[in-house]
Specification:
The chain has five domains: about 100 residues, Immunoglobulin-like, CATH 2.60.40.10; about 90 residues, Immunoglobulins (Immunoglobulin-like, Sandwich); about 100 residues, Immunoglobulin-like; about 40 residues; about 180 residues, Rossmann fold. It is rod-shaped and about 170 Å long. The longest helix is centred in the middle third of the chain and has 37 residues. Strands 8-15-14-10-11 form a five-stranded mixed beta sheet, with no helix packed on it. Strands 16, 18, 21, 22 and 23 form a five-stranded antiparallel beta sheet that branches. Helix 2 crosses helix 8 and helix 4 runs parallel beside helix 6. By secondary structure, the chain is of the alpha+beta class. The protein is about 25% helix and about 35% strand. It binds 2-acetamido-2-deoxy-beta-D-glucopyranose (7 copies). The site of one 2-acetamido-2-deoxy-beta-D-glucopyranose has 4 residues, from loops.
Amino acid sequence: MSAKILSCKITAAFLSLIIAEKCGAYDVMFKHSLVPHGQPLVIKCSLEKSFNFESGDCNLTWYKVGNQTAVPRDKLSRIHQQKSLIWFLPAILEDSGNYECVISCRNLTSCSKMSTEVTVFERTDGLCLNEKFAVEEVVFTSSSAKVVCPHLDHFRNEENILPIHWYKDCQLLEGKRFAFLNSDLMIFNVTMQDQGNYTCKTTYTYNGKQYDIARDISLIVEVSPPKMPPEISYPQNNSIEVELGSQVTVDCNTTGADGFEVFWTGNGVYIDVFYVSRIFAKPNNEETAYDGRPMYSVKLIISEVYSEDYEQPFICQASNAFGQVASYIILKHRVPDVQRWLTGVFVSFLLLMFIILIVYKIFKIDLVLWYRNSGCAFVSKEDGKIYDACVLYTKGCGGSDFYRLETFVLRILPNVLEQQCGYNLFILGRDDLPGEAMVSIADETFKQSRRLMIILGSETFSCTQLEDAPEQQLALYSALIRDDTQVILIEMDGMQDYASMPESIRYIKQKHGAVQWKGDFSEKSCSANTRFWKSVRYQMPAKKKESFSEVYLSPQTLDNSAAKRN
Ligand SMILES: *[C@@H]1O[C@H](CO)[C@@H](O)[C@H](O)[C@H]1NC(C)=O
Ligand SMILES: *[C@@H]1O[C@H](CO)[C@@H](O)[C@H](O)[C@H]1NC(C)=O
Ligand SMILES: *[C@@H]1O[C@H](CO)[C@@H](O)[C@H](O)[C@H]1NC(C)=O
Ligand SMILES: *[C@@H]1O[C@H](CO)[C@@H](O)[C@H](O)[C@H]1NC(C)=O
Ligand SMILES: *[C@@H]1O[C@H](CO)[C@@H](O)[C@H](O)[C@H]1NC(C)=O
Ligand SMILES: *[C@@H]1O[C@H](CO)[C@@H](O)[C@H](O)[C@H]1NC(C)=O
Ligand SMILES: *[C@@H]1O[C@H](CO)[C@@H](O)[C@H](O)[C@H]1NC(C)=O
């Protein structure tokens, strides 16, 4: 008998070995159960559904991995199996490990095994949340939200209508804002402040013994989007200036609509997201606004602007459950920047004027002389005057400087102006007859002269006061009074002490300036093309070119001047 039992046991062991081996290939799922030390735990074999146990053809057995002995079916055992469930009443630290449920059937061809891991941990007192154990739940800000106390299914039956207590951060929850519905917690008027660590606690009574059950929940509160139509932040029925043929990209930025609810139309036609068209749309990544609404942006891309695109609205439309909005953009021709253009023209003009001024300043004399020489110059018609210039100089008191002055006035000046340039001069002291009344000559001559030329020697005023020479005095006055006679002031050799000069001279110097003679008596200095003579010629009246050569060559003129000298 005992041998039979023994053999039976051996057979059973052998069979289970075969089963175990055969089922090795049929592991179907893994599960991980976490439970604090001292709390009850129930695990259901999830294979159960696919087998028919009613017929008795199949058996479901729980094992602890590594222990050939099946978990007892004795309901009073701390760990026992019952139908497809394995019970830990309660679980203790040593129970940690892998458990498996094996389903074996009479025909031995169908066998399945499920493995599950159980971790029993020490619950730390004073901690409001055992992070490993906590279940994460998410609710939205709204008028009410439900928080579930998880994994209580097998602890609820008719005998166990569980009173559940809810804690937040170890504080018992009370008040109008909280309601307790079966195993759930209801929170009204949810705000961000409701986010935090929650614990639900209850008891389970089995076989006259009470077990504590606690579940940790990490509650996350998310802002729920307001219930309103979407908004388009851009475009805003505005226009942009673009150039013909250019590429244009316009964002349509919306808030509150999903991607498929945002699109562009042009000319009433939906603009597709195909890249093959000249005009297409390109969706962008979605972002979330601070209030939880989606932010979606769709680009309108015109790869080349045609003239037909102008003045035609491109409309962006967005919609959601609460309404729809639209906003358009219009392309306009880019008008040239008038102001910038004008500024540019003005600046160029100023610059040109400046350059012309500089050039004129530098080449004024040469230009005028060249112009006169060119023969185009308009020579004023006969004004009845005989002389081009009346020349005055201070006869002074002798000395080398006075000799220089006389040489200049009587030799060089006539040589250049009369012989080379053909001017007709009246030189006081050369062309006046001795004994003639100075005053009458001077007055007469001035009336017949186009210019008055005053030559100041360097010693002029140290030796003789100009005021003492009545003819010069008179000439000056008449020049000043009759402003139509221009005065040419020539300074000989170096600085003149104007402070000691009569006021009339100072006035002329200030008004017309002076030309300075720094040359010697060489041939070069006597050329009409030196800077000095150009300045003098510039101040002299214009001379006809014909008359220039005429006078220059005419022996009669020479005779005249010779006659004058005599
Ligand atoms: C194997 O399991 C049985 C039944 O659960 C138990 O009595 C026995 O102590 C276990 N053996 C070992 C070595 O854990
Ligand atoms: C199932 O278990 C019962 C009793 O525990 C046994 O009589 C039966 O033969 C088993 N069936 C299979 C298929 O192992
Ligand atoms: C073995 O028995 C099970 C349960 O009755 C059945 O589902 C399965 O099809 C059978 N397998 C074979 C090969 O007959
Ligand atoms: C929720 O808020 C509304 C309006 O603010 C208020 O009328 C209502 O009494 C609040 N409900 C609770 C339970 O506090
Ligand atoms: C929730 O618990 C975790 C872990 O103990 C802690 O880091 C976190 O600050 C707690 N949250 C709140 C809102 O108290
Ligand atoms: C743009 O125009 C549409 C009608 O075409 C109008 O519904 C919308 O309110 C306007 N949007 C703005 C920002 O003016
Ligand atoms: C539209 O949104 C995108 C992405 O948020 C941003 O880069 C772009 O500047 C926005 N465009 C306009 C016109 O506001």
